[in-house]
Amino acid sequence: MAFDTAVSGINAATADLGVIGNNIANSSTTGFKTSRAEFADVYASSLLGAGGNAIGKGVSLAGVTQEFTQGNISFTNNALDLAINGNGFFLLSDDGAALYTRAGNFQVDREGFLVTNEGHRLQAFEVDNTGTVNGQTGDLQLDTSLIDPNPTALTELTANLDSRQVPPTVPFGGPFDAFATPPTVPDSASFNATTSSTIYDGLGNAHVMSLYFVKTANANEWEVHTLVDGVTTSGPDLLNFQSNGKFDPLTLPVDIDITGWNPLNGSGLPTGADPQDLTISLSQFTQFGAEFAVSSAVQDGFTTGQLYGLEIDDSGVVFARYTNGQARALGQVAIAGFSNPNGLQPLGDTSWAETFSSGAATLGAPGSSGLGVLQSGALEGSNVDITEQLVDMIIAQRNFQANAQVIQTEDTITQTIINLR
Questions:
Q1: Per-residue pLDDT averaged across 267-285, rounded?
Q2: How far apart are alpha carbons 33 and 166 in whole angstroms?
Q3: Which of 117, 165, 170, 314 could in theory staple to 189 by disulfide, Cβ–Cβ 3.0 to 4.6 A?
Q4: CB half-sphere exposure, 197, CA atoms < 13 A
């Protein structure tokens, strides 16, 4: 019986060394979680149980348990590298089958999906057209196509007109047409101040909108003439300030409305974009005794744009930045939590599958419901402690040698018995 007992001990030590060897081999594997072998003693028993003086029959491997402690987080220069600081797993899709991992070294495949090295797609909460996150999960995909341009409908200007100005000596004239032969443009002596801003038509073409301000002979009154691409589109419109340099609240809002503006190209021909209406808000203008200055110029249009960069914040929201200055939310990375992570089934490739023992996955946003936060441009390393593993390896080696010595001793005794005459 001592042979069987010692053999079980050798098998146990071998299994222990196998677990330790696997830990050491994966000490540099991203998202790897160390394991430990757990053993139980073995006794022969009948229906009535084991006897009071029963001798054990050795040892058995009770299980291999993984330790889901936090690994060290190292920073990288890749925004698609993600690390979870805290509890939880990334949710992956393998052709519809759910997988879970702590390894966040993602990349973009040919179709724009964020995938692992094995091609498993990262799952995220979807967003609607307004950028609001909903509870539906799906594959996280980057749209690398050009985004549609947005024609300008509203331009808001904030500026101060100098109250010390006097009416110009040269009449402003007009209308003007920069594409006429010869071109006609405003005389610099016919206005007191001017400012320009860029607006966009429905095809994303940029146009220059210029406002010319002319002080009239009436106190606190100004004329505004509007030209787009050097062609008069509106004016004169009147601005009337109170004696305190501000607009009468009862007259607000102060807008210039342009109806049916037809965009022209550099040759003075239509661009092909639909005519559009423009509103120029001047409600934030003042007339103080200071130099003319524009402090803000905002318009709601933009040209077409291509994907330029990606940002992922600690709440998991993925923002795409485009060459036209726009930014859009593409989704929010989903984090899965389990009541018993040790019950997960290892599948290899640093991934796990849900089991009855692990409990069902609970999905949430990073940083919510006890889930860890997300760190972009970083990876979680293995939580293997090499020093601890080397010590355990020495112990397993001693156990193996000791059990082998038992076999050798039993063999010596057996030979002694056999050699009795």
A1: 96
A2: 78
A3: 170
A4: 22
Contact status, residue 331 vs residue 125, Cβ threshold 8 Å: yes
Residue 370: CB atoms within 10 Å: 11
CB 194 within 8 A of CB 296: no
Structure tokens at 355: 């089991």
Residue-wise pLDDT tens digits, 160-170: 999 999 999 99
Q: What is the pTM of this model?
A: 0.76
Written as six digits, the tokens of 91 are: 């949710």
> Which segments of 161-229 are extended strands (E)?
193-200, 206-215, 221-228
Contact in structure between 141 and 127 (CB atoms under 8 Å): no
Q: What SS3 state is found at 4?
A: helix
pLDDT (tens digit per residue) in 292-338: 999 999 999 999 999 888 899 889 999 999 999 888 889 999 999 99
CA 23 – CA 16 distance, rounded (Å): 11
Q: What is the dihedral sign for C-alpha 285, 286, 291, 296? A: negative
Q: What percent of the chain has pLDDT over 70?
A: 97
Tell me the domain boundaries of the chain. 2-69+382-418, 76-144+322-380, 154-299
Alpha-carbon dihedral angle through residues 34, 340, 30, 121, given to the nearest 10 degrees:
150
CATH of 154-299, one of 3.40.980.10, 3.40.50.720, 2.60.120.200, 2.60.98.20: 2.60.98.20
Burial of 132 (0-12, 13-18, 19+ CB in 10 A): exposed
Distance from C-alpha of 411 to C-alpha of 416, rounded to nearest angstrom: 9
Residues 129 and 98: beta-carbon distance below 8 Å: no
Asked whether 280 and 291 are in contact (CB, 8 A), the reply is: no
The whole-angstrom separation of Cα 329 and Cα 133 is: 9
